[in-house]
């Protein structure tokens, strides 16, 4: 895919005319915050997939390498392909994603654009499948907090079908001004994820420093319980503190108006949620959790030993 889109990029740069550059309109906090918020929302939205991938990493891998390679993969691909898409939009009349790839690719040599468009479809479908599966897991986890769900294949299929139906219904109600609707969606996703991300990061790096009683996470009456009231309080404080600084097409908070429409809610939410959670966790029972971690590690060793096939005598 990388090689294919590299050739598509070369074809676009050599065959399309993007027109003249837009005159410099000067710096605007409102424009900067919108662009920065969209970029932050794109990156932070990946946080919900972290556990799905990090569970397969070797235990000795450094945090710096994980963060660096994850950011490089997420940011560089976005910068490259979003810039390419913007170029398509300015140079092609009535562009669409697949049609633009096909048209530009065929400028390289006959049939290449069709090939590039065809192999783009499975990639798009795989991303949609991951999104649906991730949404199902999130929904199941939320429901499991109130009523235990047995993770059967049937339950997962039903969950995915329900999520797909909800997504389809929402897609049908999107107004004609799609770009504005999409921007609002990205911003709303950012608003809901910011306090959650702050709590997770502070808990991992400053509170528990990466040490958890893994088996207790799956126990309703374990040391972590069903809900973390500290996390919920920190989330609520950060989320409601963000509201005065929110800027969307349908709502603009008083704080955002005061600074000319700039949206700094993400900074407010990150800071307050993180600080509040850190303060609320100062009285955690460290000794009890340390004992639970020791027991959990013993249980994990027993499970690993039980799953390891014995060598033939």
From TrEMBL:
Membrane protein topology class: Multi-pass membrane protein
MF annotations from Gene Ontology: transmembrane transporter activity
Domain of life: Bacteria
Pfam family, one: Transp_cyt_pur
Transmembrane segments: 28-49, 69-92, 112-134, 155-174, 186-206, 227-246, 258-280
GO terms under cellular component: plasma membrane
Location(s) in or outside the cell: Membrane
Major site of localization recorded for this protein: membrane
Keywords of this entry: Membrane, Transmembrane, Transmembrane helix, Transport
Similarity field: Belongs to the purine-cytosine permease (2.A.39) family.
Descriptive protein name: Cytosine permease
Source organism of the structure: Mycolicibacterium agri
């Amino acid at each position: 895919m990388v090689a294919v889109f590299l050739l598509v990029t070369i074809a676009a740069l050599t065959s399309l005319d993007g027109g003249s550059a837009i005159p410099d309109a000067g710096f605007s906090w409102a424009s900067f915050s919108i662009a920065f918020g969209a970029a932050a929302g794109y990156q932070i939205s990946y946080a919900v997939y972290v556990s799905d991938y990090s569970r397969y990493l070797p235990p000795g891998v450094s945090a710096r390498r994980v963060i660096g390679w994850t950011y490089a993969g997420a940011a560089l691909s976005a910068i490259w392909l979003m810039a390419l898409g913007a170029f398509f939009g300015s140079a092609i009349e009535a562009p669409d994603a697949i049609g633009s790839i096909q048209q530009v690719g065929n400028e390289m040599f006959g049939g290449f654009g069709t090939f590039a468009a065809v192999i783009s479809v499975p990639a798009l479908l795989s991303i949609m499948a991951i999104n649906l599966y991730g949404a199902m897991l999130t929904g199941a986890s939320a429901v499991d907090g109130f009523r235990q769900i047995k993770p059967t294949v049937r339950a997962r299929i039903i969950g995915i079908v329900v999520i797909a139906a909800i997504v389809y219904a929402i897609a049908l109600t999107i107004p004609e001004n799609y770009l504005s609707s999409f921007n609002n969606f990205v911003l709303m996703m950012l608003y809901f994820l910011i306090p959650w991300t702050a709590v997770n990061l502070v808990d991992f790096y400053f509170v528990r420093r990466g040490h958890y009683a893994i088996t207790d996470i799956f126990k309703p009456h374990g040391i972590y319980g069903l809900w973390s009231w500290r996390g919920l309080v920190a989330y609520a404080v950060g989320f409601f503190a963000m509201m005065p600084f929110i800027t969307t097409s349908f709502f603009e908070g008083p704080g955002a108006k005061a600074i000319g429409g700039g949206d700094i809610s993400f900074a407010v939410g990150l800071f307050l949620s993180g600080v509040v959670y850190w303060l609320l966790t100062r009285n955690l029972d460290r000794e009890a959790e340390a004992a639970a971690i020791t027991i959990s590690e013993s249980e994990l060793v027993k499970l690993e030993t039980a799953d390891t096939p014995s060598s033939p005598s």
